Amino acid sequence: xxxxxxxxxxxxxxxxxxxxxxxxxxxxxxxxxxxxxxxxxxxxxxxxxxxxxxxxxxxxxxxxxxxxxxxxxxxxxxxxxxxxxxxxxxxxxxxxxxxxxxxxxxxxxxxxxxxxxxxxxxxxxxxxxxxxxxxxxxxxxxxxxxxxxxxxxxxxxxxxxxxxxxxxxxxxxxxxxxxxxxxxxxxxxxxxxxxxxxxxxxxxxxxxxxxxxxxxxxxxxxxxxxxxxxxxxxxxxxxxxxxxxxxxxxxxxxxxxxxxxxxxxxxxxxxxxxxxxxxxxxxxxxxxxxxxxxxxxxxxxxxxxxxxxxxxxx
Amino acid sequence: xxxxxxxxxxxxxxxxxxxxxxxxxxxxxxxxxxxxxxxxxxxxxxxxxxxxxxxxxxxxxxxxxxxxxxxxxxxxxxxxxxxxxxxxxxxxxxxxxxxxxxxxxxxxxxxxxxxxxxxxxxxxxxxxxxxxxxxxxxxxxxxxxxxxxxxxxxxxxxxxxxxxxxxxxxxxxxxxxxxxxxxxxxxxxxxxxxxxxxxxxxxxxxxxxxxxxxxxxxxxxxxxxxxxxxxxxxxxxxxxxxxxxxxxxxxxxxxxxxxxxxxxxxxxxxxxxxxxxxxxxxxxxxxxxxxxxxxxxxxxxxxxxxxxxxxxxx
Lengths: 314, 314
Known about the structure:
The structure is a homodimer.
Chain A: E1 3-7, H1 10-22, E2 28-32, E3 38-40, E4 43-45, H2 47-57, H3 74-81, H4 92-106, H5 111-122, E5 127-130, E6 138-142, E7 145-148, H6 149-155, E8 162-167, H7 179-185, E9 188-191, H8 196-205, H9 209-214, E10 218-221, E11 224-225, E12 228-229, H10 234-240, H11 247-255, E13 265-269, H12 276-280, E14 285-289, H13 296-313
Parallel strand pairs in A: 1-2, 1-9, 2-5, 9-10, 10-13, 13-14
Antiparallel strand pairs in A: 3-4, 6-7, 6-8, 11-12
Helix pairs in contact in A: 1-2, 1-13, 4-5
């Protein structure tokens, strides 16, 4: 069964890791959010893309889920000695990725080609695609004005109240080569347990993707368990918008008019079983299981459940 | 006695270190070559400037004379894993400098201001000025075509035959703020034992500097001992040009029409005492002493000798 998975950061990377254990490489494409990419110290930094690749390569820090295992921070400590900004912690090994990516971009190589090359060097056999080679930086409207995503997320630690988002330049962006084909060829599309607002929505906002998705069977895995996220600000964002954060809220998000009512199936945690009836009432098939997947074994188990659930829907 | 010293890389940094031990901070300005600056991985790298600052700060690697003591290469190893270019070895601590400098430049801060800030953070009290805030990249004409300086120096290890140099854009460059004033106020100008062709010449090529230098007493310290350089390609460059590398050749270089006959005094090594008569015949006063200065104590001793010799000429 050919699968395309949409992923953002840590949660998305974990399910992608599970799927990569179960599926032959040629049957899985992971399409990754680039809305959180930014330029820092002149370097192109792609946190979601790197989190997915590091996780698939077995290079991710198991404690944080992002960044590199056995990381050091000598360059970062050195620049802080010079009064440099300390709000975005840069690991030495991670810096190597940003340096080489920036060098290749300055030579005119596209992000999707760079990602393919990096995956080959890291031994990642699953195809990982940035959603677009065009920058689509997420801008966050807050009660303190508009912020760049990493300013909101890392520098301000999500402490300001969110009022909305835009993905700068997304209307003029194009899907990266292979993205539309991967969606069109997929028998099943999976929205990984990623932030609906700032991980999955920016992917859907790239022209052509929403239309391609509309013709597919889509399963989403809830990024919210018992009203909370394992990682990241999705629950806080719902609260900022005056919505009770829940599996139901996520299912509603993906089945709203705005996102096109694209959901065929929804997977939620056992802790949220009370939401099941309301989600079913939206015309969405449900699977209730354990969706907390810290380890490789649990990721594999959830991936198998997702695929089996998908087969029922196809 | 107010001193301005022109310096390039390791040799220049060593004498600057000696002078900084002897002179009160307000009496010494070190004006540093920027012709070897280049952009690598999107970062601005200023090898000569950093070598001078690291040396004055006590942060330089005592083995190499350049780079940082207790350096590591984790970012560099990481980018090499991705197929990145390995010809210019980048240390983690050193990277911190390049990252913060690049960040500040992108905010519009001038190189001279950045250098002043960095020196303050590193505890360097001597004033260090890049010769110009405008890029003046050294281009090397070789028998294999024109190369950027670091391509010639590091990537090709000076193995190609040099036919000439140019400093790209130098005719439109301006001295950095404070450079002309430092030269005009100096009772003595010192050309450190740096490469005449690619360390001192680019400084002299910045419009206004040669004229300012012409009105000053100038002492040069030979970068060549017994036909060889301690470090760097100066001797090989002379040979490429068909000139026997020697203290005499350096003295001739600085007293040629092209450089304006600017030399009042010349300091050469005891090993080169046979050159003394020919240098004196050029109308240049000479001092023969031990100019090999690997340690802080020897640097201080040579600095004192240079200053005493200078007092004789004033």
